[in-house]
Amino acid sequence: MGIVMRQYNNFYKKFQRQFKKAHEQVIETMPVGFSNKAYVERFKYMFPDKIFLIETEKNYWHGKCIIRKNLSKIQRKGMYLETYDFILSTSKHIRKKKRENIASNEEMIKKADTAREISLKKLKAESMSKNKILNYIQEIDPPYLRYYRNKFFKTHDLHERLEIIRELSKYNSEEVRKFFYAINGHIRNQSLKIEVQSYFQSLSLPFRLSRKKKGKKNFIDNEIVKNKKGPDELKKRLYINDLEKTKRFDIFVSHNSRDEEKIIEFYKKFNKKGQVVYIDWINDKYDLRREWCNASTVDIIKERIKQSDVFVLYFSGETLNSQWCTWELGYADALGKKICVYFSEDINRKGIPKFYVAYPELQMSKDIYVKIKGNEDILLEEWKKL
User: Fold this and answer.
1) Structural element, H or E, at residue 325
2) 17, 58, 128, 386: which could join 81 in a potential S-S bond, CB 3.0 to 4.6 Å?
3) b vs e for 259-272, b when ≥16 Cβ sit within 10 Å of the residue's Cβ?
4) DSSP H stretches of helix in 103-212
């Protein structure tokens, strides 16, 4: 038996135990002489969160090609993760157990409904927790992903590797996840693996921390990697670090931080159209905290505007109260950047200073348009090329 198959065996044994209490509750709601199909249907009804867990794990192991490569062995041992087979396999002993007290039909239905209600609450809580995390993660591939991926396996500098992991953990995509799974399987340093593990755990995705490699130990394997944080440290990296120099963004969003909830909904629309957005509290969240703001913060924002193709000002009722928005707009204009303004729906345009209205207006519907005075609306992608 190979290493990976042993890993699957260990996982399967532990995974089965998570369903013992659920099966004990389901069996209490089943009538005499029930069929296998009826049992599986009742389980699905009562425990939707468990069904979701089975599907998630099945997708994880299929992704690693373990189930496909070892299909005959898995079927022979009855360790398949198909929902129907798994439920029957993990309940075969309890289904054979003779029950002394058979509840009435009304009691059975009540127990089933109560269990389902609890299960749905758990599922909803997990979903809300995941969505809250996803608010601060861009669901798109960054344009510098390939460079970072190649750099990771070429460099032996653990601090540089940590920087790559932390940067890519700000994105959620299939390619980023594949890369992080590869890191778990190929490197020896445990602190970097734990950094990757925290990424998957935050997204409620399955992850198995690979065991420590056999053979001669190196002090690097057990070194705990920590990078310095703060605007001053980031400023240094911006000028000397190739990882920072290669960063590129489609959109720089200038805004007042009080509009955080609106900005999350706003930038997600850009992601859906394949646009990578720069927002300081998302893209530089490790170094640009509000309480750390200093002179270096100004230089960092300047560089991020330079690295962005388009400057978008999100104009709301809070914009005029922000010194940063006006300064960022002026700097982008001085650089000759393409600039457009998005006016939030609740804004009264009569009291807006005229220089804001002079810029092209960004409009969002199914597509993202730029409205230029005297011209027809033009798609953002086409406007960028003008």
Assistant:
1) helix 323-335
2) 58
3) beebbeebbeebbe
4) 105-134, 145-154, 158-168, 174-186, 190-202
pLDDT at 320: 87
**CA 253 to chain CA centroid, nearest Å:** 21
The answer to whether the CB of 271 falls within 8 A of the CB of 138 is yes
**For residue 202, with 0-12 CB atoms within 10 Å meaning exposed, 13-18 middle and 19 or more buried, which class applies?**
middle
Beta bridge partners of 252: 278, 311
Look up the pTM and report it: 0.83
Nearest to 30 by CA among 124, 126, 86, 94: 94
Helix or strand or coil: residue 379?
strand
Taking the C-alpha atoms of residue 313 and residue 347, their distance in angstroms, rounded to an integer, is: 14
Tokens read off for 268: 């997600």
**What is the DSSP track for 58-115?**
HHHHHHTTHHHHTHHHHHHTT----HHHHHHHHHHHHHHSPPS-PPPHHHHHHHHHHH
Compute how many other C-beta atoms are within 10 angstroms of the C-beta atom of residue 305: 20
β-strand pairing of 368-371 with 378-379: antiparallel
Report DSSP state, residue 171.
B
Q: Kindly list the domain boundaries of the chain, sorted by start residue.
A: 3-130, 145-202, 231-385
- Element spanning 272, H or E: helix 260-272
CATH code: domain 231-385 is: 3.40.50.10140
Q: What are phi and psi of 191, to 5 degrees?
A: -65, -30
No. of helices (H) and no. of strands (E), the chain: 20, 7
Q: Which residue has the tokens 């924002």?
A: 301
CB 300 within 8 A of CB 284: yes
Query: How far apart are the C-alpha atoms of 252 and 249, rounded to whole Å?
Result: 7
Q: Cα-atom radius of gyration of the chain, to the nearest Å?
A: 27
User: For 235-289, what is each residue's pLDDT tens digit?
Assistant: 999 999 999 999 999 999 999 999 999 999 999 999 999 999 999 999 999 999 8
pLDDT at position 121, please? Answer: 94
The answer to whether 173 and 142 are in contact (CB under 8 A) is no
Question: Both tokens of residue 132?
Answer: 């809250």
